[in-house]
Design goal:
The structure is a homodimer of 275-residue chains. Chain A has eleven helices and nine strands. Chain A is an alpha+beta fold and 275 residues long. The first copy, chain A, folds into two domains: 61 residues, Arc Repressor Mutant, subunit A, CATH 1.10.10; 183 residues, GAF domain (Beta-Lactamase, 2-Layer Sandwich). A six-stranded antiparallel beta sheet of chain A has the order 6-5-4-9-8-7, with helices on both faces. In chain A, strands 1-3-2 form a three-stranded antiparallel beta sheet. In chain A, strand 2 and strand 3 form a beta hairpin. The radius of gyration of chain A is 21 Å and the shape is globular. Chains A and B meet through helix 1, helix 3, strand 3, helix 4 and strand 4 of A and helix 1, helix 3, strand 3, helix 4 and strand 4 of B. Chain B binds a DNA duplex (30 and 30 nucleotides) through helix 1, helix 2 and helix 3.
Chain lengths: 275, 275
DNA sequence: AACCAAGTTTCAATAAATGAAACTAAATGC
DNA sequence: GCATTTAGTTTCATTTATTGAAACTTGGTT
């Protein structure tokens, strides 16, 4: 992370810098906030552009993320995330609970939402999946942290920003740590308006047979519409769903493990009914 | 592409190799199909894993794509693709035509679908957007190629595989080139079951004010359900939509261009109503 | 016309990637 | 139970690519 990981690390840092912006960035903007010398940055940008990871607008001279990323991520999402595999389970859970469901995984120290079901509005995947949130003040985030091995947990706690989004936010490592112990003991976590006023949730971890944290699952609602107790009522369903996802994930995890019938997940990546 | 672009290029090649697989890959599998020497590949994999671009399963020792890609791609999709900006236009077009709509961009020599609307089934973004298709035998692909500057066009034609998906497929550079000339003259392209039996479409390019190809837009249907003539009837609507998308894209293209009111696109990347 | 800013190229010094081979660990065969 | 193969990891002298200061080019400004 801090160790630059050679040239590749630097290149990915540059990519990240471009990704942080909401708009195309010019060379000099990047140069200003980058440690790298002019010529180095220049060539990294060229390489990344060459590779399709960045796009360089000839007219304006500005760089933006390249579409190759979208293709790679589609693969990542469909082969490495829990989302495609969890889809039927999430559908069922959403129907059963009538509430908003989140499926998340850890991306470094942050929560990455890989899927979402909401009762009312239909799913809008790409605009929802791929979003990130803080780990220390969301239901799924805290719950995933709680079930991590101590060394990893410690490392990630150090990386949290502890910004107080609301007056409920656990804004110190100590408060968070106490909460994580409680979550681990209890088996599930809460969000009591710690990230956003009014928003509450109940979250459970998705654990592999070996106890490794695969992801997190939550039912979310607004306290004006649903009581925390009601959400807690969905705990059995949540836990059943989490277990079902973990089982499917185990089947998928490695070739020649489960004999056959695992290929259900495959989803043609080349677009049919093309246009 | 062939010129390895230094270490960064090699690393991205490795990433791509992992992405090609539907399942986690072991070190030796990658080694077998890679030109790279053992030690080099090994360290590249380490670096990429370190950086969160790959995930390494400690138990099985297999590599899969990392979730960091999903986050990056969400940014790429929402800041660099036409999709978020085109969304309202696509919605309107889908409603108006009652047919399946595709929005695509070029990713190297391939067509990358960044959004899709279908009349019946509701949208499933991530599972649709991000898919790729061949450029030489899809409506949007051929149409985008047709409006490219000759040098780029030539380069991309050379990169096509010319596999004959159907007996309608234009399976030589010559046939494709003739078709591209016709499309450029006519202003729009067709897919006459060239990629998939029964599937037909009419496609138009999305061009910037300067004539640069930003993307492609198509109405698609099955010949048993809709006649090509009917799809052609939607051409005015298609063209209007393409122009509208291009105009919105121009406003967005660069900072301090259009004074204000451009910020409509911004879409909080941090997930609210979190869970 | 002179100036300035942004971006691009050069080239010797330097740091990093390389890859052959040695090593370790675990699985498989005898 | 010991030898052998297979898969993955580490080492280190060699080679190669990256580096970065500075010079240069381009396009816009006063």
């Amino acid at each position: 992370m801090t160790a630059t990981d050679g040239t590749v690390g630097k290149a990915l840092d540059v990519l990240e810098k471009v990704a942080e912006r909401d708009r195309p960035v010019r060379f000099s903007d990047l140069l200003a906030e980058s440690e790298l010398p002019k010529a180095t940055l220049y060539r990294l940008l060229q390489t990344l552009t060459n590779q399709g990871m960045l796009r360089h607008d000839a007219e304006t001279g500005a760089y933006s993320l390249g579409v190759r990323l979208v293709r790679l991520a589609h693969r990542a999402w469909s082969t490495a995330s829990l989302a495609p595999l969890a889809r039927p389970h999430l559908d069922a859970l959403a129907r059963q609970t009538g509430q908003t469901i989140h499926l998340a995984q850890l991306d470094t120290a942050q929560v990455l939402y890989v899927d979402k079901r909401s009762a009312e509005t239909p799913v809008e995947m790409f605009s929802q999946a791929g979003k990130i949130g803080p780990a220390y003040c969301t239901g799924v985030g805290k719950t995933m942290l709680a079930f991590l091995p101590v060394d990893q947990q410690d490392r990630l706690i150090q990386q949290q920003s502890f910004h107080a989004f609301t007056d409920q936010t656990l804004d110190t490592p100590e408060r968070l740590r106490a909460e994580l112990v409680a979550i681990a003991a209890r088996g599930h976590g809460y969000d009591r308006e710690e990230h956003e006023p009014g928003i509450i949730c109940v979250a459970v971890p998705i654990l592999s047979a070996g106890g490794r944290v695969l992801g997190g699952l939550s039912v979310t609602g607004h306290k004006d519409h649903v009581a925390l107790a009601t959400l807690e009522g969905h705990l059995p369903a949540l836990k059943t769903t989490a277990r079902a996802i973990a089982e499917d994930a185990a089947d998928w995890a490695f070739p020649e493990r489960g004999s056959e019938a695992v290929m259900t997940r495959r989803e043609e990546d080349t677009c049919r009914e093309s246009g």
